[in-house]
Sequence to fold (494 residues):
Amino acid sequence: CYGSILKQQRRFPDDFIFGAATASYQIEGAWDEDGKGENVWDHETHNNPARIKDGSNGDVAADSYHNYKRDVEMMRELGLDAYRFSISWARILPTGFANEVNPAGIAYYNNLIDEMLKYNIAPLVTIFHWDLPQTLEDLGGVLNPLFSDWFEDYARVIFENFGDRVKNFITFNEPKEYCILSLMGIGADDKNLTLSSSAVSTYLCAKNLLMGHAKAYRLYDKEFREKHGGQCGITISVNWFEPATETPEDEFAAELRRQGEWGFFAHPIFSAEGGFPKELREVLTENSSVEGYTCSPLPDFTEEEKDFVRGTADFFGVNHYTAYFVTVAKQPPGNLLANVMNSLDNFIFADDDWPKSASGWLTLAPNSIFKSLSLLRTRYNDPIFYITENGWSTNEGRDLFDDDRVQYYRASMESLLNCLDAGIKLKGYMAWSLMDNFEWMQGYTERFGIYEVDFSDPARKRTPKKSAFVYKHIIKNRYVDYEYEPETMTMTID
Ligand code: PNW
Fold:
């Protein structure tokens, strides 16, 4: 039919960047090798293994610390333009502070970067993807008022050591998720806090992370940009939230939800006026007095801080996975301030017809990348975007023929093309993930890789899934061919 012929004719421009993403704790392993310090995930998985669904940890994970050459070979097989990985803070700075730089840690990332550059694969480096050194956590971690200075010091070490070859930096991965107990379970909020102090800590974390981000960005701008000529941004999780009905109540619930999910971090950086989003601030202030507080738990920015944070990103990194409908909750939450970022008096649900992944929160929703970026674009003055994560989970257990993942990626590609057709400044796309890895609280029970990793094999053998072949075909041919089926499951480097 016409539809599919037209679809097949839409092409990705030659300069559109296709890549894949990972994160240090989820793939590296070698948790205590060569001078690496302990981080919050080492600490928590070793001391409270029951908190991880299968009791597992990232001690070995995909063992990328020893397999980085194979990882780069996979990138070459796929024909990737870029690879997004994160740096393990405690591997570089075992004490958490910049007083002691671990040469073996620097060497590992140098080797990885140089191996990638040999084959023209651009590194996209996430400075912090959730694996905070335990030494800093013991001092209160992201709640310590000095956190933003520690982060700036750490960022400087990274810019100094890798900035000559790395041209793309992402300060934080998904700051909101890091600040929230419900998703992370480990990190900022894992202090057996009461509901109200957990609300307070969530907001404090948000402000501290934003200040840390801004300090790192301004450092890059001032001392490294001219010399190295790169760019620095942030990655925020942006899913699509749509009102369930057209009633003003649902419209407002959806808007509050968006502000709580991503506006919280996007607004201070990307909006014209800066600071936290207005409606969210108002609702929080109101709820605070209802609950008997003297002021809102949301630490406001001073005018000076607002200016300091505003405009501190050369691009907007978007982790996008799915969409939800939002409706006003029939019963308001018991504590109006707790968990506010994800439950301000509202309730979210996915459409029953949307295909389901192995992760409870992830379904295949129609055209949600385009819907999200369209709104961000108008709200934040047409920034440059990268999709820094997007992907699909399946259950553990061998299935190289991952047709549901193929369906998800093809749908994403159509949504990307819709963005490009509309003139959205979308420059690249990173699949999550290059390989199966440690999926945080879910351990190894949910798999996001387009390469399978055999976690029972000491060598951690990697094998391409069908989705890897399909992604490769798209990258090479610059369009989505719905008829394409890999002839064999053997990969080659073209
Ligand atoms: C991201 N959600 O987390 C993280 O950046 C990755 O480390 C992680 O492995 C990947 O997505 C898959 O989970 C998210 O509920 C977790 O919308 C949950 C959501 C979004 C992102």
